[in-house]
Every structure is written in structure tokens, then in C-alpha cells.
Amino acid sequence: MSSSGTGGVPQHEKRARDRRMRQTAKKQVRRAEIVLDKYRARAAKILHTEGMHGGAEQEKPSTYVYRILRHRETGVRVMVLDCEAPDAPASAKGEAVHRYLVQCETHGLNGDSFVSAKAALKAARRSDEWCSMCSGLMSSKPKARNRARLTARHGRRDGGGSRQDSYLP
After folding, report:
1. Cα–Cα distance, 71 to 124 (Å, whole number)
2. Could you point out which of 11, 18, 65, 139 has its C-alpha 20 to 30 Å from the C-alpha of 155?
3. What is the pLDDT of residues 150-160, one digit of tens each?
4. Whole domain around residue 21: which residue ranges?
């Protein structure tokens, strides 16, 4: 019996599984880093209140970047920036009309500015409405159709139509 590819798992499925495993591992590492940073911050706060300082003073995390969102299907990164933060650059303060600015980090395009963080986060989740490059990515996404829905919508598989048409002479 030869092993000339007559059985087994197809290569495209192996590659897809490999890709999913790598993405899952990356996400797990990011989540672990976030949890670790939270514990480090708590420990530093406890040491600071008790008067004991660790080796080197750690910098406070930047408050200028309020949140970074990543779109699940396209991988686009969108940032919500707080322009009134103490570490915000002067160029950002002059650029925004309101406090929170939405920016597509992947394509380098700026969106609108918003008064509340909630409105800015909502706009960041819908980056395809204000970023022309994101809208191009979203529109090229193929739509998957269920075969049962297709056949139900068009009647029968062999041409569709209603049942009454098939009884006419």
C-alpha cells in the first residue's frame, strides 16, 4: 500500500488548524500578560502604601490610549484615544474637538471625536462606517449560505418555482 496521498487529512485543513492553534496561543499569551500586569500593579500599590519600594520605579501605563480594539474577522486594530489625558501629545489635543478620538491604527485614518467613552467605543466597533479602507475589507467578505435555506427559498433544487407551476400542462 502506497502513501501517495490517498487518505488522511487534506493539507488545507492542516494549515487552517495550525493557524487557529497559533492564534489561540497568541491570545492566551496576551491574556496571561494582562493578568500578570494587573497583579504587578496590585503588588506595587501594596508595597508603595507600606513604604517599601521595589527595585526600580515602574512607569504608570499610558492613559492617552484609552482602549485598543481588534476586529475578529478582519484583524483591524482601532484605538480610542483620550485627548485630555496628562500624557496626550499636543497634536492630539488640537486635532480633536471632543475628549475621545477614534483612530484606525491599521490604516492610519482618524475618525470622529466624541464626548463620552461609550460613544467612542461604539464607533470604534463600527470602523467600517468611517474608515474607507475598513469598509473595503468588510464588503469583500464572502457570505456563506446554507444549502437548506437556498433550496427552501427557491423551491426545489432542479430549478425552483412553486408547486402550482409544475402541475400546469
Report:
1. 10
2. 139
3. 566 555 555 55
4. 17-51
